[in-house]
TrEMBL record:
Organism: Propionispora hippei DSM 15287
Domain of life: Bacteria
Protein name: Uncharacterized protein
């Protein structure tokens, strides 16, 4: 086996692994498990920052009350939008004939 053949086999295996169902599962896992878990950690953190901001003044009050919670909220919003777009692309990337294949019976295919 040459190095080129080995490289092609590894590349084919990686493409097979990272296509279709696995990629969908990763995207769904990130959207349904990882982001909500991160939000559960971030929500008390931002609430505590806002609470502490009431006792501060100047830049620290703005930073703790508006800036950091805003950055965290925007980061979650952008992450959700990117993951939704990736999920849409995966759905659109599936050829129409494979999407309809599960809905058709062998009799419908031959007819």
């Amino acid at each position: 086996m040459t190095m080129e053949e080995f490289k092609n086999q590894v590349q084919a295996a990686a493409e097979e692994l990272l296509s279709g169902d696995v990629k969908d599962a990763i995207i769904t896992g990130i959207r349904d498990v990882v982001l909500p878990a991160l939000k559960e950690v971030a929500d008390p953190f931002t609430a505590k920052l806002k609470e502490d901001a009431a006792a501060e003044s100047g830049w620290v009050k703005f930073r703790d009350g508006v800036f950091i919670p805003g950055v965290i909220s925007i980061a979650f919003w952008v992450s959700e939008k990117l993951i939704d777009k990736m999920a849409e692309k995966e759905t659109a990337a599936i050829p129409a004939d494979t999407q309809d294949a599960a809905a058709t019976t062998p009799e419908q295919v031959t007819a």
